[in-house]
Structure formats: C-alpha cells, structure tokens
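Researcher: I'd like a candidate sequence for this fold, 457 residues long. If you have to choose between options at a position, lean toward the conservative one.
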C-alpha cells in the first residue's frame, strides 16, 4: 500500500496539472523582483526630479503670476468699553483692490538644460501686463471711522520665484515710470513679489485715487510651467512660445489655441464671475494670505516633455505579471507537446530574464531615449530567451515559435504604452485573447497523466 501511495504521489507530481500550479506559483513569486523594479524606477525618477530642481534653483522654478493688486493702507478706530469707560484703539489695515481689466501678453523662448544624465525644459518669458483700475470704493470694505492713506498706495505683484527676474521692472501709470522694489510691500509678509509706490512725487497730497491705466513689462526665467491668475474683472491672456508640446493646465482652458511643429499660441478669456474672489477686500497687517486668494484659479501651460520614460517604464511594469504569465504558459504549452521537460529552475531563469528587460529598458532610456532603448532591450531579451527555450527543448522550431511569441508580446506592449488613454482597454483585450488562445491550445491535454492528446474526436 505504501508503494501505491508513493506511486500516486509521483504520478501527481509528474502530472501537467501539478506542473501548471507550480508555474503559477513561480509567476506569483516573481512578483517580488517585479516590485523591486518598480521601486528602482521610482528611485531613479526621484533622482531625476532632484536634478531638475537643481537646474530650477539656478535658472528659475515654475512661475506663477498673481496680480497686480492695488494696496491702500488705512487705519481704523475700534471702540470698546472697559470698566464703564469707552476707549478706542487704532488698527492698521490694508485694502486690496483688483483691476477692472487685465490683459497679459507673453512670449516664451525655451531650451532644454541638462544636469548629469537628466534634463528639463526651461524658458525665458517676456510678459506685458496692462489694464485699468477703477477708483477704489472703501464703502464696500470698511464702514467704521477710518483714515485712508492714499499717498501710501502701491501696486503689488506676486511672483512665485523672484530669483528668475532677469531685468528690472517698471510700473507705468499716466506716462510716469515707477521702478519696482523687492517684496510685496507689506511689513512681515515674505511671500515672493515686487511692489511700486504710486505717484511718489506727490507724497504730500492725500487725495483719493482716480481711475488709472497701468502697464508692466517683465522679463523672467522659469522652468516646466507658467501660470497666471485671473486678477481682473475681465482677464484676457495671450501666450505664444516656440515649445511644440504644450499641456494646458489650471482652472481654465484656453478658448482658442494653435499648435504647430514650431510652437503654439493660446488665448484665455476669464470673467470675474468664473472665480469666487471679490474685487476688493481688507486684511490686517502681517497677513500674507491675502495674496493667495487667486491661487486655486491660476491657469497656464506646462512645457510638457512628450516622452517621459520613467512613466513609460512604470506603465510597462504594470503589465509585467500578465506578460510573465503569457511567456510561462507559452513555454509550458511547448513543453507539453515535446518529449523534453523544462525544469522549474529554467522557468525561474526565463522569468528573471523578462524582469531584467525592464531594468535594461530603464537604464538605456536614461542615455539613448525610450524608443531605441525599447528596441534594444526587447530584441536582446526576446532573442536570448527564444534561443534558450529552443535549446532547452532541443527543437529549433519551438525556439522560433517562442521568438514569434516574444515579437508579438513586445510589439503589443509598445502599442499599449503609446495608446495612453486606451491602454487599459487594450491590455484587457490582449489578456483575454492570450488566455483564450492558451485555453484552447491546451484543451486536449491530459492534465493527470501528462500524455498530450494529439488528435480530436
């Protein structure tokens, strides 16, 4: 009886069914090194981001313009009763007014800067901001006893990275040129920006401001993205650039755009009703948050690099388990129709070689670009494994069959990566087709005895 039990166990162990489940277990086990590949890709991407940040520190970071704001200081008396005595204290405040009309025109010239083996897109922007402020109305801001210091009114413009400014900037109001000064002009507020005092020659006067037109010319450097806030009651923005791969970002998309091989041109029109920000509000001293109200409404362009090989490698690795399964099932099916047997260790070698494909792809992409790296990595991996399987089964024809399978696999994977929006759908259909082919190709296999059925009934 013991011999019968041993023979039964031997029969089970040698059966195709047991080998199938062993192969499935090996596929799951290879998910560990596949995860390590994903972590390696993340580490390399973090290193690339660090290199790009270092470039941005020297050239200019992502730029976002908010404003201009008309800031008018004033003081207000706050009365209170303490021990039946009526007293008052004076509080310093600032009134913030947005322009009635804001027009922004900009032209950016781009270039690709490298640090080590990584690169990023940088630009130099020539911007002109022009528009009109109406006469400030304090009745919508302060109802109490207040003293308005019109002579101290100034224009503030928030710039996310002032270190990118390449030339001095001037505010032009009523044909008068006023140079901008560093900071936003509020004490204790360290948010990046510049400010310019209105009518500095008339500081002795303290008259209410009348409506006035303004214009500001800026030249600054930045990297990766440029965004603008819709500060005006009516905001009109027109940007053009020599970058051929823009990605429009932010709260609003352009109403029109023209994309060409030598650059793009885009136009935005944003009414104040499209943003939940009033035209005027008041803040206390040291309140830098007042200049953040428009942050969530900024819009602009990302100088998109169309081939981000880190994301492509990551996406390819997501299909790793499916392609490991197809390759293993292909080898398993060829084994069942052959007199030779493939040892589980040889299956592990096949899986490790397929995982090394992703490491080859990642490392080569950093130096020669994704497409050429993909061709080299897929040809090297597919060719080597086809030769290995053919020699393991002692059959040249089965090696050629594996070569055809790998050709289909890697071609399919590349097409899935290029589809982007339809990648999941294409991957699901491909997986279904591959499973269907495998199921019907092994339909007449005797999973218990290991003797393949060579003919149907």
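Model: Candidate sequence:
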């Amino acid at each position: 009886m013991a011999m019968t039990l041993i023979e039964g166990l031997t029969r089970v162990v040698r059966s195709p069914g047991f080998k199938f489940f062993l192969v499935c277990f090996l596929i799951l086990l290879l998910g560990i090194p596949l995860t390590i590949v994903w972590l390696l890709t993340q580490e390399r991407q973090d290193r690339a981001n660090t290199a790009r940040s270092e470039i941005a520190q020297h050239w200019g970071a992502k730029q976002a313009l908010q404003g201009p704001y008309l800031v008018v200081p004033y003081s207000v008396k706050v009365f209170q009763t303490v021990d039946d005595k009526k007293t008052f204290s004076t509080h310093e405040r600032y009134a913030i007014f947005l322009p009635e009309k804001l027009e922004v025109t900009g032209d950016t010239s781009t270039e690709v800067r490298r640090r080590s083996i990584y690169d990023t897109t940088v630009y130099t922007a020539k911007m002109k901001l022009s528009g009109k402020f109406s006469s400030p109305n304090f009745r919508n801001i302060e109802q109490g006893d207040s003293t308005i210091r019109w002579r101290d009114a100034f224009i503030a413009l928030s710039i996310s990275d002032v270190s990118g400014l390449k030339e001095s900037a001037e505010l032009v109001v009523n044909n008068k040129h006023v140079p901008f000064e560093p900071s936003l002009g509020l004490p204790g507020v360290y948010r990046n920006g510049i400010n310019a005092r209105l009518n500095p020659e008339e500081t002795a006067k303290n008259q209410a401001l009348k409506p006035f037109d303004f214009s500001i010319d800026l030249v600054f450097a930045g990297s990766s993205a440029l965004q603008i806030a819709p500060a005006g009651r009516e905001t009109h923005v027109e940007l053009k650039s020599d970058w051929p791969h823009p990605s429009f970002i932010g709260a609003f998309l352009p109403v029109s755009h023209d994309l060409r091989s030598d650059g793009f041109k885009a136009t935005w029109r944003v009414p104040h009703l499209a943003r939940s920000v009033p035209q005027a509000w008041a803040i206390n001293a040291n309140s830098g948050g007042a200049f953040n109200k428009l942050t969530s409404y900024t819009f602009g362009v990302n100088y998109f690099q169309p081939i981000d090989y880190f994301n492509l490698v990551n996406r390819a690795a997501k299909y790793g388990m499916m392609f490991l399964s197809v390759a293993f099932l292909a080898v398993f099916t060829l084994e069942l129709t052959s007199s030779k047997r493939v040892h589980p260790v040889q299956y592990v070698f096949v899986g490790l070689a397929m995982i090394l494909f992703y490491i080859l792809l990642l490392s080569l992409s950093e130096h020669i670009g994704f497409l050429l790296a993909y061709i080299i990595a897929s040809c090297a991996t597919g060719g080597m494994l086809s030769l290995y399987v053919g020699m393991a089964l002692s059959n040249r024809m089965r090696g050629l069959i594996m070569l055809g399978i790998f050709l289909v696999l890697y071609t399919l994977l590349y097409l899935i990566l290029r589809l982007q929006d339809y990648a999941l759908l294409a991957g699901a259909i491909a997986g279904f087709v591959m499973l269907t082919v495998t199921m019907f190709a092994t339909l007449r296999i005797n999973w218990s005895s290991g003797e393949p059925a060579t003919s149907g009934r």
